[in-house]
Amino acid sequence: MDGGLGTLFAAEGSKLHVIGEVDFTLNIGGLLIFHNFYVISNLSESLIFGTDWLTQNKVVIDYANKQVSIGDDLVRAPLFAQNTQYVRLVKPLCLPGYSEQIVLVSCNRIFSNQDVAIEHLPGLQFKKFAVARSIGAVKHGTTVCRILNTAPHALVLPKNTKVAVISNINVKRDCCLVKTAPLLPENQSRIF
Questions:
Q1: Within a domain: 54
Q2: pTM value?
Q3: How many domains does the chain have?
Q4: Which of 11, 98, 112, 143 has its CA 20 to 30 A from that of 32?
């Protein structure tokens, strides 16, 4: 932190503005852990554990078994939240081999009128199909995502098939505009 209740920095270097502090007791699998947390403005995540907390509480992250061990293995907890939110196909999809399509998907209405990130289902990318990571907006419980059929034969998915994971995103904080070069007429080329 740069002193006082000013600013913290995220892992990628963006500024996080501290607006207060709160003493809080976490109950993780029955283990009560007291900690002083900073309150950050415009944070899309509910809670971020810093390296100080992870070290102090002897946290071991086991990606292979998708578990977190806390306090010298006093408690084990799932690595990923159990309340993962999914997007599902609004209608059946028949996608020819080696093709892609932008499809309408439904999601929990808690995401309505919010910006969201769409990502592939953990462990399933390229198994039956691939999903492009994207940022979008949800209107009335629906948004769109791009699905790619990586196989030579047609892919048929029934209505309500889970196709991706959805999460809130703070576009102003987490994204930046990338300027692209202007298009050239067809008869000209650009040398880099």
A1: yes
A2: 0.55
A3: 2
A4: 11
